[in-house]
Amino acid sequence: MASQIVRRLARSGAYGGIFSSPNPTFLDRAFSSSASASNLIRATLFPGDGIGPEIAESVKQVFRVAEVPIEWEEHFVGTEIDPRTQSFLTWESLESVRQTKLV
Fold this sequence. Notes:
Radius of gyration: 14 Å
Distance between the termini: 13 Å
Structural class: alpha+beta
Number of helices: 4
Largest sheet: 2 strands, parallel
Number of domains: 1
Strand content: 5-15%
Shape: flat
């Protein structure tokens, strides 16, 4: 549900077109054989609830074993509407998505 909200907000351009400038080098960096700080990929992760945290942990483990140089910014969807965003996502969560361009 959170990803649907983020996608809807991103497409609307309400938060500066979060996905308006895709990062074409993501796959090149993700599967590069030389992992370094300059190749570090930052991505926003919403673990969710239910089985979501377990799946999120498994995803992180897969990336770790594959030696993908990625830094996860974990954010959580609230149980109350944030008045700043009029959604369950906080401003900080939306800002993370805008900066990383990866959810």
